[in-house]
Structure formats: C-alpha cells, structure tokens
Amino acid sequence: MKTVQTHNTPPLETARLRLRRFTPDDLDALFLLYSDRDVNRFLPWFPLTTRAEAQELLERDYLACYQQPRGYRYAICPREENVPIGYVHVSLSEGFDLGYALRPDFWGRGLAAEACAAVLQLLREDGLPYVTATHDVNNPRSGAVMRRLGMRYQYSYREQWQPKNYPVVFRLYQCNLDGREERVYTRYREQTDRWFVEPGL
Asked: Which DSSP symbol is given to 25?
C-alpha cells in the first residue's frame, strides 16, 4: 500500500500559474476575493465586508493550517505577478472535498481547471485515494471545471444550505485517484431524504 505523504501546501507551477501559500502580505488580495459578491454567490459563507474579517479568515483558515503537518490550501497567482487571484483547497476530512474560486476578471480562461489539475496530480502522488467536489445546480460553470478535470458525476441531493439558510440542490462529482472507479462517496446522500441521479450527466 502506498505511503501517504505528509507535507503542507508545497509550491506548484503550471504553464500560467504559481500555486503557493497565502502570506500576511496577501491580505488585500484575499479581501478582494472574499468580498466579491459574484465570487461568493454559490459558496457557503457570506461575502466579507471588512478587512478585519479578512484578517481573521487569513489567520484562521490559512496561516493556522500551514502550521499543521499536512494540508492543501493554495493561493492561485499568475506567474508574471505572483499576486493571488483565487484559491484551491482540498479538505482532509473524509470526503477530501475540492473547492476553488477565481476573481471574475479571470473567469473564462481555463485557469481554475489548470490550477486544480496541478493539485490533483500532487494528491495522486501523495497517495490520497479520491477527491469529491459539489456545485449548486444553478452554477453550471463549476460543474464544467469538474468535468474538465476528469471528475465523474455521481448523484444530486438537496439540503438546507447554511449559513445562508435556503434549499439548494447540489451535484456531487468524484475522481478516484487510486483507480478504484467503482467507489462512490455516499455520505451526502445518506444525510438527506432527497437524492437522485440526473440522466445525461
């Protein structure tokens, strides 16, 4: 059995991007990203309204994470600028959930998929067995990124989304990095009384 690597957010590069840790110097870029209504419309939190909130998020969700022995929480930066324009995260909880976001002025260029592909390759090398990702049915752009990464649709489910407190139908995609294509992550459908498979996806 392959040994799982234990490093935390090692730097990565692609043709157009640098993926690295967020630093205290990235506060303004982080605030710009997390305060944008379009960026955060389909994400499970409200847009930030103050730089103090951004500082708290930076310390709690990034700098503290980097003190742990293992983690994947990346700033997405253009190679020529090295200023964050987005992020890629992979949780280390049971679902190994993949999350990503980009500023709207960088949408439509394939950058999210390029960044995520680099992280998925690292996860494969590190021995993670699979990753999952979900998107609101009203956000098909995100599903397109998942399919571009080779992730496979598994099922849809409805939940009362928090903290925004309204019902959402999510689609779950999965990529089995260890080749076990029969594996399906079932936790989300086990936690709802309404799940289904949409034909044609």
From this structure: G
| Angle between helices 111-126 and 140-148 in degrees, nearest 10 | 50
Q: Which pLDDT score, from 0 to 100, does residue 63 have?
A: 97
- The structure's pTM equals 0.94
Q: Residue with structure tokens 């253009």?
A: 78
74 strand-pairing partners = 88
Q: Is the pLDDT of residue 2 over 80?
A: no
Gap between the Cα atoms of 67 and 65, Å rounded: 5
Beta sheet of 72-78, edge-to-edge order: 12-13, 17-20, 72-78, 86-90, 98-102
Tokens of 52: 């103090």
- For residue 162, the model assigns a pLDDT of 87
Rounded Cα gap, residues 17 and 22, in angstroms: 14
Contact 29, 21 (CB under 8 A): no
Selection from 11, 128, 27 nearest residue 66 by Cα: 11
Dihedral Cα 56, 28, 66, 5, nearest 10 deg: 140
Residue whose tokens read 């960044």: 115
What pLDDT score does 193 carry?
Answer: 87
